[in-house]
Amino acid sequence: MQAAHEALARSKAGDAQVQAWVCLADEASVAAPACQGPLAGAAFGVKDVIDVAGLPTRSGSAAESAEPARRDASCVSQLRDAGGVPIGKTVTAEYAYVTPGPTRNPRHLAHTPGGSSSGSAAAVAAGMVDLALGTQTGGSMIRPAAFCGVVGFKPTFGRVHRQGMHVLCDSLDTIGWFTRDVKQSQAVASVLLPGLAAHRPDRPPRVALLTCSAIGDLSGAARRALNDCAATLREHGAHIDAPDVDADLQALLDIHAQTMLAELARGLLPVVRGSQGHLLSPALRTAIDRGLAITHAEYAALQQRRARLGGEWLERFGGVDFIVTPSAPSEAPEGTRSTGSSLFNRVWSLLGWPALHLPTAHADNGLPVGVQWVARTDEDQALLGWARKLHPLVQRT
């Protein structure tokens, strides 16, 4: 228990500048873990769209009640049962969309930590907690992991139960986690993805390299990180192909954008129609209006195209162990009025495939950069196994 109390003390002492936390638990409420499981004594943060008993869940919005949650979300209960100790709620962008909270990037306070899981990534990067829960609809985990220089993992869609999460985009929202290293991420996966056996690779991997240059440019540092990763994997025996997917990328991005707007708008309709609707940001209200304009027939057609392309991509990458692709267009941009671009994450959120950010290097200004590794549906533990083996080889820091 001492470790959890020390994490609570670090968080209280170090948060004045980083502002990763919405609220922290009282010393008296940080109870001893239920067991000595794989996460025994590990303190963790919880994104403020996921319930923790005794703490409010406000989704980054004054429109939500400040009343404390009566019970834990399922994922929080699972972590408690494995010995983890939740010590507080971390900042999220408003309703996990685009309007940022107050969190700063602990690597450089003048830069964004990314979003929408900004507080969770920052709390781990600042060394306040061992791990933190986040969520991803577009790029809300992989992007902040990249900007803050921590390991971020978004599992296969639907494999972590969402009871106790404020779900808005029903076919996209996925619970994931941030950790300091891949080993810790595997420990969390053993708890939240039960039944998936750990993977220990014993051969060189088969890799697909996707630069995704058709949809966006990379900064020099982000491009070097991607190229260096591929070169190092080749040096260690990896077979790397670079398939041409440019024809599909923009279509997948368009489907994601329209799906997200349609689902977000209907998920927030009770707030819009209620007495607190005036408290929503202009950006969110605009998104809701756009989403409500998408008809059911249009939404159904989007999902048919999504299913067709998803099936084609499963077949196309059937012989690949994992995909290497950018995590973000650049290192964390300066300023905190935006959470940065999620352009290189949205396709994987739409397909529902597991995605992992690995920090590998630093830009000239000292900010972290890295790469995104992706695997096919339900190959979560295999992806983590490859990363556990190969991350030390591709890491330059």
TrEMBL record:
Give the enzyme's EC designation.
3.5.1.4
SUPFAM superfamilies of this UniProt entry? Amidase signature (AS) enzymes
GO MF assignments:
amidase activity
Keywords in alphabetical order, please: Hydrolase
Q: Which InterPro entries match?
A: Amidase, Amidase_dom, AS_sf
Ranges for the Amidase domain? Answer: 8-384
Instruction: Give the protein name, as stated in the record.
Output: Amidase AmiD
Signal sequence range: none
- Name the lineage: Bacteria, Pseudomonadati, Pseudomonadota, Betaproteobacteria, Burkholderiales
Q: Which Pfam families match?
A: Amidase
